[in-house]
Design brief:
- By secondary structure, the protein is α/β, with parallel strands linked by helices.
- The chain has 11 helices and 14 strands.
- It starts with 10 loop residues before the first helix and ends with a strand.
């Protein structure tokens, strides 16, 4: 099967095809746990059924504020299978920033979490409950970690939506249909929601995987937030197109990135220039720890020539430079 197979398909169909081809192959990894392509397909279908059972209809917006976890990847595919439009919001956004994006997109449901210790005291679930009064269209708040008291406030547990016995929703989305609304600041500094299609995102991911020469033997590291097109397309979807593995990274720290590269055998490392600078200049950096690296993309900001040279030479891998923009899903050109 060639990359061109995915030039006119949907995000949901992408996973179904790969779950059939690579049923027992590991897709997602986190802290020693593994999810095969078949596991992710089953959970994505179950979650899609659960979301539709709540009353969400094709075309409704599903907002997501989660760190880079397997649940996020599963939710991306579940939204696609249910015909919902994904609205990712970065976990670093404060209440005002998040509310501005949600007010414009009018989601019917929001999937979030609560882990204030790991996020400088920010409780994303409490923030979602606080914003609910300002978002009249928001009917459902879904949490990865709802307490009994929060459930009394109408919070729905993410796990409870995994309906193994519910009838699967019929395939509705087409390649030209909207799959996500992803915000970009552009040159104005004001958030603008770019409406991106299934076909545009998957085709772009296939082209990135082709340019990187990815195969099912590769291991991607999930450094870039899945809330933007770099993370969704060049990491999550490009990994799926390749039938490869994705090591999820909920909290980016250069020392943790270097540890995961060495311990999990990462072959595809991508990031913004700042990430590579932090990794190269970290006390834990050793060229030998990067022995498994094969390729990756530096993009998302101007890439200084000296930094690119250092990464290529000291990490000893084929690092490509990418240019793109959110509205383009995102890659436009790569070295």
């Amino acid at each position: 099967m060639t990359y061109e197979t995915f030039h006119n398909t949907t995000i949901g169909e992408l996973l179904s095809v790969q779950a059939s081809r690579f049923s027992n192959q590991t897709f997602l990894r986190l802290d020693g746990e593994r999810w095969s392509y078949a596991d992710v397909e089953l959970q994505a279908c179950s979650l899609a059924a659960g979301l539709r059972e709540l009353g969400l209809q094709p075309g409704d917006r599903l907002a997501v504020t989660l760190p880079n976890t397997p649940a996020y990847v599963i939710t991306i595919f579940a939204a696609a299978k249910a015909g919902l439009i994904l609205v990712p919001v970065n976990v670093r956004r404060d209440r005002a920033d998040a509310l501005a994006r949600l007010t414009k997109t009018k989601p019917k449901a929001l999937i979030t979490f609560s882990d204030p210790k790991q996020f400088n005291g920010m409780d994303h679930l409490e923030m979602a409950l606080d914003m609910r009064a300002s978002l009249p269209e928001l009917s459902f708040v879904i949490s990865m970690s709802a307490s009994k008291s929060q459930k009394k406030d109408g919070v729905i547990s993410w796990d409870s939506l995994l309906k193994d016995t519910a009838p699967l929703p019929p395939v509705i989305a087409k390649p030209h249909d909207a799959a996500a609304i992803i915000h970009s600041l552009g040159s104005s500094g004001e958030p603008r929601g770019a409406i991106l299609t299934h076909g545009g995102l998957v085709h772009n991911a296939a082209d990135i995987a082709s340019r990187l020469g990815c195969t099912a033997e590769d291991v991607f590291l999930g450094t870039i937030p899945f809330s933007n097109t770099f993370g969704i397309t060049a990491i999550a979807l490009a990994c799926a197109v390749s039938g490869a593995q994705l090591v999820c990274m909920p909290h980016y720290r250069p020392s943790e990135a270097l540890r995961l590269v060495k311990e999990t055998g990462v072959t595809v490392l991508s990031g913004v220039p700042t990430m590579f600078a932090l990794e190269l200049n970290h006390a834990d950096f050793h060229a030998s720890a990067c022995a498994t690296l094969r390729t990756g993309v530096m993009a998302g900001a101007p890439c200084p020539a000296e930094l690119v040279r250092r990464a290529r030479e000291e990490m000893n891998f084929k690092l490509l430079i990418g240019y793109g923009l959110t509205e383009a899903s995102p890659a436009v050109t790569m070295t």
